[in-house]
């Protein structure tokens, strides 16, 4: 590989459309699976941390050192020449994107005489204004899982944010590694403090770093985890790394920190103290005796093994992003547990102190208990983590109650008796409390308070089910009454029709009278509730009957007329012309014999 081809190549890059991190096979092929690296132990060294903090700048310093070493060393390797390599720049805009791998591996001779190759990995600034939290976490987790040495770059001194983010990344890395069946702890994690401003308290360099780290691990300076919870810094870092170190770097001087647009990174432009400590840092970090070769399944990490690890992590990372919430939940639960334990400790210490000196009367003991309990409660109030875990659990328990109640009293009925409702409530409360008790954090006063709040809430839910049951009952009663009315109206209609049939074929006045009598009898049968339905039906019954009666009457008349006509014609035939001019009357009509 020619020197001019050396460059940063994306190892994992965010897809511009979906934002998903994609492994770049071309980089694997070109670097990790090259003849030079495939079977050679590799030591990836990554720098991660917030954006605009000189990460790429520093990698170029490491690159310069490693190049000088592989060229035989000697002289001042931190040349007074513009700093080149990984793209870097001043200003406030985030610069590096994705995870970038330096294309040329740099050979180092390990303490045991083996040759290994250092792979420098640059990373996108985490938790900046252009990265999503998922991108930041996944990127940093990947860098940690791949690296033999991970430098976590922080400014001035770690803040609670840094710790929270580190915890989240470490927890996510743990989930990702366990899904991929890979070890999750980075062999060596270096907390690199830039712009350390208190050299009078702790000197620059590894020694000052070691002191201050001891102080921080004991919980000094950082009062809480940023989420109101006590932190267990040592445990948090222990989750992320097998070995934790710290190095304090001074401020680089005004030119480097953005004061000079012509700043090129040349040694002469740096504050002398900074240049000195930079040299020290590179030599300390890359001291071959302390460079760990990561092992996977008991075998040293080679280029090919790293490529396989990248593929496996990529495959699982693509599916894992939703578990970022799982990581956050796990951390919240852990923080909550710690908060509850702290509250319990506060309670027992207070009680022990009070009882150690003298034996207390029952009344005095009760008083001390109340005071200790109140103090412990206050500790928990300041630790929303504890509340949030139990609150989420109470939420789930209340949902468990609700589904048990819905099984006993389905939304669309039927309603149940009051006794049955009380039995269902008692069973659902037992199920909900069992759910809460099996998952709650500790038995402290806050958890008890949340348990009794949950009981109150379940009673409130019962009131809702009572109202619902009463409404169902009303609906059912209304439906039953409507059915009774329908049956009564049907009986009344049959009765009317039977009565009218029995009355026979009547002419109009008699028909009207018969209708009135039958309608009155039907109305009595239908009852008050059926009147409205019945009266419309009855009104429609009379008219067709009247028409039929009129039709019958007309037909009868026509029949009689035809009969009379026939009789007349017979009479004419018998009597002859003598009877011409005689008129006879049938009904209202007159007939003349002509
Ligand atoms: N204050 C300060 N600035 C530094 C230090 N080292 C380098 N810089 C300056 O920080 C600026 C950004 O440098 P980069 O190396 O591009 O920073 P980065 O962290 O890689 O930034 P992103 O790629 O955007 O995440 C440059 O102007 C550097 O000169 C340092 O120790 N302290
Ligand atoms: Mg950068």
From TrEMBL:
Record-level Gene Ontology MF annotations: GTP binding; GTPase activity
Pfam (any one): GBP
Coiled coil: 543-574
Domain GB1/RHD3-type G: 39-290
Homology family: Belongs to the TRAFAC class dynamin-like GTPase superfamily. GB1/RHD3 GTPase family.
Alphabetic keyword roster: Coiled coil, GTP-binding, Hydrolase, Nucleotide-binding
Record PANTHER family: GUANYLATE BINDING PROTEIN
Protein name according to UniProt: Atlastin-1
């Amino acid at each position: 590989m020619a020197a001019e081809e050396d460059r940063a190549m994306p190892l994992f890059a965010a897809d511009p459309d979906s934002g998903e991190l994609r492994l770049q096979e071309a980089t694997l092929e070109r670097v990790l699976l090259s003849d030079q690296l495939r079977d050679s132990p590799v030591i990836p060294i990554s720098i991660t941390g917030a954006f605009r903090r000189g990460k790429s700048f520093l990698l170029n310093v490491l690159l310069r050192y490693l190049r000088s070493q592989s060229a035989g060393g000697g002289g001042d390797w931190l040349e007074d020449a513009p700093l080149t390599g990984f793209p870097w720049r001043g200003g406030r805009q985030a610069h590096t994107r994705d995870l970038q791998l330096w294309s040329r591996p740099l050979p180092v001779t390990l303490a045991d005489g083996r040759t290994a190759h250092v792979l420098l990995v640059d990373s996108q600034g985490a938790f900046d204004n252009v990265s999503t939290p998922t991108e930041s976490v996944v990127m940093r987790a990947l860098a940690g899982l791949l690296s033999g040495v991970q430098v976590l770059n922080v400014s001035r001194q770690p803040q609670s944010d840094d710790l929270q983010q580190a915890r989240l990344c470490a927890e996510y890395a743990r989930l990702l590694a366990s899904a991929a069946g890979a070890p999750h702890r980075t062999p060596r994690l270096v907390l690199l403090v830039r712009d350390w401003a208190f050299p009078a308290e702790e000197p620059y360099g590894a020694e000052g770093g070691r002191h201050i780290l001891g102080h921080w691990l004991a919980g000094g300076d950082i009062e809480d985890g940023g989420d109101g919870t006590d932190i267990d810094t040592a445990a948090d870092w222990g989750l992320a790394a097998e070995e934790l170190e710290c190095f304090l770097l001074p401020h680089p001087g005004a030119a480097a920190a953005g004061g000079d647009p012509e700043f090129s990174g040349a040694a002469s432009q740096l504050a002398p103290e900074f240049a000195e400590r930079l040299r020290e840092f590179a030599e300390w970090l890359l001291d071959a005796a302390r460079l760990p070769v990561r092992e996977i399944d008991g075998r040293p990490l080679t280029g090919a093994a790293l490529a396989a690890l990248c593929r496996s992590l990529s495959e699982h990372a693509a599916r894992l992003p939703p578990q970022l919430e799982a990581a956050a939940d796990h951390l919240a639960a852990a923080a909550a547990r710690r908060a509850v334990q702290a509250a319990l400790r506060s309670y027992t210490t207070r009680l022990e102190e009070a009882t150690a000196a003298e034996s207390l009367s029952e009344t005095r003991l009760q008083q001390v208990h109340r005071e200790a309990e109140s103090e412990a409660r206050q500790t928990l109030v300041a630790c929303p983590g504890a509340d949030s875990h139990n609150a989420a659990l109470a939420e789930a328990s209340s949902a468990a109650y609700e589904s048990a109640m819905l099984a006993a009293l389905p939304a669309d009925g039927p309603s149940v008796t009051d006794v049955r409702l009380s039995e269902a409530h008692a069973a659902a409360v037992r199920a909900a409390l069992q759910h809460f008790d099996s998952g709650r954090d500790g038995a402290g006063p806050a958890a008890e308070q949340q348990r009794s709040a949950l009981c109150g809430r379940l009673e409130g839910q019962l009131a809702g089910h009572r109202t619902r049951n009463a409404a169902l009952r009303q609906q059912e009663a209304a439906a039953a009454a409507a059915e009774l009315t329908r049956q009564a109206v049907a009986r009344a209609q049959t009765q009317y029709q039977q009565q009218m049939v029995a009355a026979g074929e009547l002419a109009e006045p008699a028909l009207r009278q018969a209708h009135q009598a039958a309608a009155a009898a039907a109305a009595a049968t239908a009852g008050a509730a059926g009147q409205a339905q019945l009266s419309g039906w009855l009104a429609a019954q009379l008219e067709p009957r009247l028409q039929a009666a009129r039709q019958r009457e007309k037909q009868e008349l026509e029949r009689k007329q035809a009969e009379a006509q026939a009789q007349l014609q017979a009479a004419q035939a018998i009597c002859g012309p003598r009877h011409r001019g005689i008129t006879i009357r049938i009904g209202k009509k007159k007939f003349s014999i002509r």
